[in-house]
Amino acid sequence: VTAVGARTATVLVVEDEADHLAAVRLTLRLAGYEVWEAASGEEALDVLRARRPGAMLLDVRLPGIDGLGVLRTMRG
Amino acid sequence: MAGARRRSTRFPRRPKSDELLLRVMRAASEGMVVHCDGSIIEANQAFADMFGFADLSDAIGRDVFDLVAPESLTDIVDSTRSDEGAVEYRCRRIDGTRLVVESRAADITFRGTPARVVTATDVTRRQRDEIQLREAHERFRLAFDQAPIGMALVGTDGRFLHVNPALCDIVGYEADTLLLKTFQDITHPDDLETDVGLLYQVLAGHINNYSMEKRYLHAKGHVVWVNLAAALVRGSDGSPRYFISQIEDVTHRKRVEQALWHETATVRLLKGVAIAANEATHPDEAFARTIDAICAHTGWPVGHVYLRGEDPDRLVPSELWHLDDPSAFATFRALKEATSVARGEGLAGKVFEQGEAVWVRDFTPTLRRRGIPVTKLGVKAGFAFPVLVGTEMVAVLEFFSTTIAEPDDELLEVVANVGTQLGRVVERARLQEQQEALDVERGRFVANAAHELRTPLATLRTVAGLLGTRRDAMSPEEIDECCDLLERQGQHLDALVDDLLDLTRIEHGDPDTPPEEVPVTDWVTRALETAPPTAGATVATDIAPGLTVVGNPDRLDRVLVNLLTNAYHHGGSSISIVARRDGTATRLMVEDDGPGVPDGIVDQLFEPFTRSTSSGEKGNGLGLAIAEGIVSNLGGRIRYETGDAGGARFVLQLPVAS
Question: How far apart are CA B549 and CA B521, in angstroms?
């Protein structure tokens, strides 16, 4: 994770498992990041269409479109 | 020795002839004597010497008959009737010693009176020589006839001139019959060239004699092994006259030798196979080395291996061959490799059918019936034997000869042993393969289990770390969330470890879970209480009345709960449980209206840690593996199929009674 800018930096966390998401969210928040969340590939793409985060934590194994699918769609 | 009668004569005195006679007597080298009625009138020095008179004068006046041995006196009477011919007399010298004298006699007139002139030649030595010769001849004849080994005088053309009884015994012919034959007639064709070759070398003077191990053909047709020693007898002019042959029957020794050789060869073969069996890293290598070893042992030019293929009723030709001359058997090989064989079909098929070694002494009739020209294939006889693992036949090794061959029971016994040894190679290879597969599976299982454990542990550590160091920066809600999270992840890990332990226990036969008869309705009800439908899902049940299954209730519950959970996670919203009687089994189906199991993982569906990649992190991937283990421990089966509406359908078959 690269901090793009202190305090204002945003991270999109894409994770379907609620507890993992909670742990990551808390860690990032305590480190000063603003956390955006998505529980699936589709949700992540919805978020990405509206706005771009400073960084993204993307799980590969996801229901529906998986992590690699999200990357391909982003680049394409 | 001389005439004894006085004869009257009409002839006048002829002193001139007297003088002539005396001169002849003096000059003669043989003894001569003139006597009148036995009384010696004149004798020569040779006579005196012959009879041991010290002086010639001592002989004069002696009675000539005193010099004749008593047993010969009667011969004298007979011989006086004739003047012709030499007669032998036994005589004695004046010292009493004996001698044999050849004598001729004639009536004469000497000094005017009738007298008899007698010649005497000492033939003692000659007679002794004759006796000795006769005795020598007799000794030879005895030695020849009574010899314990066969003997023959053989002409330079090979004809038997004289044979002894021992030889007649060896070859089984009467002497009269044998004397009409040549040695060539009764010699084994394979040994004739060597024998005749040596004979010519002797006749040509290159060697003096020869000996060889050879075979005769007995009158009854069988082979007799002999040791022959032949020496040429030449005449005084050096020309070859005949051979003296000594023939010793070595059939017994030869048989013992052959048996020993055979045994040694057998031991060598078995040793070779044992080494090949030990060293081979793959059964094919052991098979290849074994067919080489057996071809070397039998001298047969073709060896081939059939293997069991996918079809349990057929043998598949392998590409493992031993061919002394690949081009000569190209057609045979091509024909063999073209098709597999069924039980009872051909040599290998017969072995397949009978489960033991088979020998065919001559394929010609069979091939002719099938319309295959024998000359095209080039094989006449064959044998084949199975490679067995227990009672399972895994291969057949077959061998072919270009000539007709009678069954060799001993060889068949040996190859049966070879088949067993090769069976062990196959068995060992299988165990090794299983072991390797097991090792791979275990390695994968451990890696998967470690991964499954690490994910929640990572979360636990992260959260516990935050609580420890950053609690001040957290809101009370966040602290509560952290505590809930720790609790849930702890439970999750607990369940995972339980599942891993259960799976291991179930894979080892699941002891300490006594089975009992369980009504299916109770079973389904309990499972639905443990795993109620998740939000939005419904479960419809359709259970035939009075149905039961046999199993441990806890384990049965586990199976159904796992299937239901699976349906809740991956299926649609509408789930059904249908149970029916199916012969001696109860069939229970759990079906959902979801998308069904992706094709890619259907084959590994019941293996641990198999999960659909598109299903996210739901479940630990052990549920179906555990369900399958429990069902198979109960003697039942579980299988997956796509439902009529495309959803997932799990079909359980469980026995009604144990």
Answer: 10
Predicted confidence band of residue A1 (pLDDT cuts 50, 70, 90): very low
What is the residue-wise DSSP string for B583-634? TTEEEEEEEESS----HHHHTTTTSTT---GGGTT-S-S-HHHHHHHHHHHT
pLDDT of residue B363: 87
Q: Which residue among B462, B473, B615 places its CB closest to the CB of A23?
A: B462
Rounded distance, CA B114 to CA B330, Å?
112
Predicted structure pTM score: 0.55
Least Cα distance to B498 among B571, B561, B564 occurs for B561
List all residues of chain B from 600 to 629 with a beta carbon under 8 Å from chain A.
613-617
Q: Where are the beta strands (DSSP E) in B67-204?
A: 87-92, 98-110, 113-122, 150-155, 160-163
Q: Which residues of A touch B (CB under 8 A)?
A: 16-17, 19-20, 22-24, 26-27, 30, 40, 61-64, 66
Full 3-state SS string of B373-418: CHHHHCCCEEEEEEEEECCEEEEEEEEEECCCCCCCHHHHHHHHHH
Question: What residue type is B526 in one-letter code?
Answer: R
DSSP lists the bridge partners of residue B109 as B114
Coil, strand or helix at B3: coil
Q: Which residues of chain B have pLDDT under 70?
A: 1-15, 77-84, 374, 612-618, 658
Angle between helices B623-633 and B553-570 (to 10 degrees): 150
CB A59 within 8 A of CB A13: no
- B493 and chain A: CB distance < 8 Å anywhere? no
In the three-class reduction of DSSP (H, G, I as helix; E, B as strand; rest coil), residue B140 is classed as helix
Eight-state DSSP code of residue B43: E
Distance from CA of B478 to the nearest CA of A (A): 8
SS3 B162: strand
**pLDDT at residue A5, as a whole number:** 45
CB contact under 8 Å between B617 and A27, yes or no, is no
Tell me the nearest-neighbour CA distance from A61 into chain B, angstroms. 6
Note the pLDDT tens digit of each residue in B166-210. Answer: 999 999 999 999 999 999 999 999 999 999 999 999 999 999 899
- Residue B466 C-alpha, separation from nearest chain A C-alpha, in angstroms: 7
Contact B614 A63 (CB under 8 A): yes
The dihedral built from the CA positions of residue B164, B165, B169 and B175, taken in this order, carries a sign that is positive
CB neighbours (10 Å) of residue B221? Answer: 7
Name the residue in chain A with its Cα closest to that of B485: A19
Distance from CA of A76 to the nearest CA of B (A): 22
Find out whether B427 and B283 touch, Cβ atoms under 8 Å: no
Burial of A6 (0-12, 13-18, 19+ CB in 10 A): exposed
Cross-chain Cβ contact A30/B481 below 8 Å: no
pLDDT at B2: 47
Report yes or no for ipTM above 0.95. Answer: no
